[in-house]
Amino acid sequence: ADHVRNKLNGSSLFVVSNREPYTHTRQDKRVNVTVPASGLVTALEPILRACHGTWVAHGSGNADAETVDIHDRLKVPPDDPRYTLRRIWLGREEEDGYYNGFANEGLWPLCHIAHTRPIFRTSDWEYYNKVNKKFADALVEEIGSEEHPTVLIQDYHFALLPRMLKERLPHARVAIFWHIPWPNAESFSICPWQRELLDGLLGADLIGFHTQAHCNNFLHTVDHVLEAKVDWEHFFIERNQHRSSVLPFPISVELVEDRFDARNEISAEEERSTLLLELGIEATFLGVGVDRVDYTKGILERFRAVESLLERYPKYQGKFTFIQIGAPTRSRIKRYVDFQVEVKNEVERINARFKRGKWKPIVFQNREHTHQEVQRYYRAAHLCMVTSLHDGMNLVAKEYVAARQDERGVLILSRFTGAARELHDAIIVNPYDVESTAEAIAQALEMNVSEMADRMRRMRRSVMEHNIYWWAGSLIGQLCSVRLRQNRTNIS
Ligand code: G6P
Known about the structure:
Elements: H1 2-8, E1 13-17, E2 23-27, E3 30-34, H2 39-51, E4 54-58, E5 73-76, E6 83-88, H3 92-111, H4 122-143, E7 150-154, H5 161-168, E8 173-177, H6 185-188, H7 194-201, E9 206-209, H8 212-225, E10 229-231, E11 236-239, E12 242-248, H9 268-279, E13 285-292, H10 299-312, E14 320-327, H11 334-354, E15 362-365, H12 371-380, E16 383-386, H13 395-403, E17 410-414, E18 427-429, H14 434-446, H15 449-465, H16 468-491
Parallel strand pairs: 1-4, 1-7, 4-6, 7-8, 8-9, 9-12, 13-14, 13-16, 14-15, 16-17, 17-18
Antiparallel strand pairs: 2-3, 5-6, 10-11, 11-12
Helix pairs in contact: 1-16, 3-4, 4-5, 9-12, 10-11, 10-14
The protein binds 6-O-phosphono-alpha-D-glucopyranose.
GO molecular function: alpha,alpha-trehalose-phosphate synthase (UDP-forming) activity
Keywords: Membrane, Transmembrane, Transmembrane helix
Protein name: Trehalose 6-phosphate synthase
């Protein structure tokens, strides 16, 4: 945390994202505060807590000024206020056009190879512009007369914001971090507004992705579409006398050191038996998956691998249960509504085929879980499955590793995640290959304790060395150096 503060060097931090870190919802007279299921929120929250900056986000709750102390601008976390949350409120049409429409029916499937066709509507595009402008106005207001603001814009909801901001605040250091993959130039070219999106992004001084492969795809896309100088040696783009560096910064979680955590006094075995009791099922081996119910996550493929395991290794019938924690998500989008039904049907089909007595192969917990609840499942499970069809990073993989202070448990990880580039000691799978994924489950269940501990120790070391503070420190450090270089060029 000190490392990040040093990199900021006295400059104030402004973070922008669509998703807010805390949502206030009112039920009758009570206000509930929840943390939304979002890898982005998990990653950024510790940074804001350490740096006391301002986080500008879309207000998604329904609590009003009377029930939440200060409606638009408040101090959070609720129990230990450290930074400012500035909320931007959107009307139903704005939210549908900008968020559900352009961001999630257009850009999300455009950037993920999950074979869902993107939908581009002109009206969504117009709302996307309008909402980006609304965020730019709020940022300019928040930044006020701040002399050296550092602005970290997050994700595909705000491709136009870097340029809008730089035009009004040329002295601001602006980075945008793209949390999802960037496709190849040919795939990206189907977007009718590809030029405008690239132009907006190139307003930033620094454009970050999780992997070098995504940086390369971005550089190729710019090369194909715009008149710009693309420097493949130093990974920057120069256009209209402005330079944008394009670099990888693999995001991470908060694992700091192996310090004693009282909650870990409970052994995996004890945690397992209490969880099974609560769930009212009997099983010897547990697997866990934690995802938003999103078609990019490979949830159906994962269930089919469990089915195949039970076919290939009948000894696991009556013994192995897979618990899927599935947070409902983006429920105003048809593809998500349909997918939710597909997932439920698949669980029912597989359970009907194998279940007996108090045992069943799959438990589907289709609701939001708190961080603490999820930790219990991580600690209780013999294995965790992350089988995304395509994923920028996937922080569930790193959270599972962070939770296993006991150096037990096996991670099964899709090769199509950014995390697979770092966590070489996971069992790496192609989720489209159901039989091999079933074999990976068998391998995990049969792995001896010393191999398991060796693998987990190495993965924990890798996450600790490259934790979220390292991510933010590198991003902010790079952003400062980019500006300095640029200033020198201008002077000479
Ligand atoms: C991904 C995106 C985030 C987003 C999260 C949850 O991780 O990169 O920007 O917050 O999904 O999705 P939601 O639409 O609920 O914010």
